Amino acid sequence: IKVKIPFGNKYLDAIFSVPEKKPTYGVILTHGAGGDMNIPQLVSLAAYLASRGVLCLRFTCKGLNVAYRSKAFKTVVEYLKLSDDYKLCGVFLAGRSMGSRAAASVVRQLSQDDDGDGFIQGLVCLSYPLHRPKLQSKLRDEDLLLIRCPVLFVSGSADEMCEKQLLEGVVSKMKAPKKIHWIDKANHGMAVKGRTTDDVMEEINAQVFSWLRENVQLEHK
C-alpha cells in the first residue's frame, strides 16, 4: 500500500507491506545515502517480514544530512504511532548504511525525551557505517553508546566502512542488549564473491526475523 507521509511542506513516499493477519509489531525501514526504499535489500526484507506477520513500512528520504534524515525518520515513527489503520504495540527502527545512522539517532532521541512508553522496541542496523573508508580514527558511535533498547547489527566482515574489530569494540561498550551477525566476506553493499544476492538476502532476512522474535512475542507461522 503506497502512502505519502506529510513532512514539513513536503511528503515522504512510503510503502506498507501488510501481513494477512492483524500485526502487533512493525518495522520501519529506510535506505542508505544512495538509492531509495525500492532497493532490492529493503524490498526483500519487507516482503519476508510481512509474510511472517510483521508490518513493514519503508520510506524514501533523499538528503545526505543525517540530522535531516533523522527528522524524517521521526516523522514516520509518529505517523505510524498515530495511525488508526494499524494499532501496533511497538515498532523496530531499521535502516541500511546511512539509514541505520538516522535510525540510531532517532532511537536515542526518543528514548531520552520520551516518557518511556515503550513504543520503540529496538534497532536493526544493516551495514552500519561506523567510519568512512580508511578513516578508522573517527568513529560514529556516539548514538550507539547511549541507546538502551536491543540492537541488532548485520554487517559484512569485509565492510570497508565498518571494520570488524572496531565494531566489536564499540558493541562491547554498549549498555544495550546487542547482537552482531557477520555476513562472511560481504562488503558494505552486502555483496559476497561466489554467492548470489538472493542467497545473501535470505541469510539477512532470516537473521533479522529470528532476532525480532527473540525480542517480542511473535507468533511464528
Q: How is this structure best summarized?
A:
The protein is an alpha/beta fold and 221 residues long.
Descriptive overview:
By secondary structure, the chain is α/β, with parallel strands linked by helices. The chain has one domain (2-217): Alpha/Beta hydrolase fold, catalytic domain (Rossmann fold), CATH 3.40.50. The protein is 35% helix and 23% strand. The protein has 6 helices and 8 strands. An 8-stranded mixed sheet has the order 1-2-4-3-5-6-7-8, sandwiched between helices. Helix 1 (40-51) crosses helix 6. The radius of gyration is 16 Å and the shape is globular. It starts with a strand and ends in a 6-residue tail after the last helix. The model has no long low-confidence stretch (mean pLDDT 92).
Number of domains: 1
Please, how many helices? 6
- Strand order of the biggest β-sheet: 1-2-4-3-5-6-7-8
Question: So, the CATH homologous superfamily?
Answer: Alpha/Beta hydrolase fold, catalytic domain
What is the overall silhouette? globular
Under CATH, the topology is which? Rossmann fold
Proportion of residues in β-strands? 15-25%
Task: Please give the CATH architecture.
Answer: 3-Layer(aba) Sandwich
Outline the low-pLDDT stretches.
Answer: none
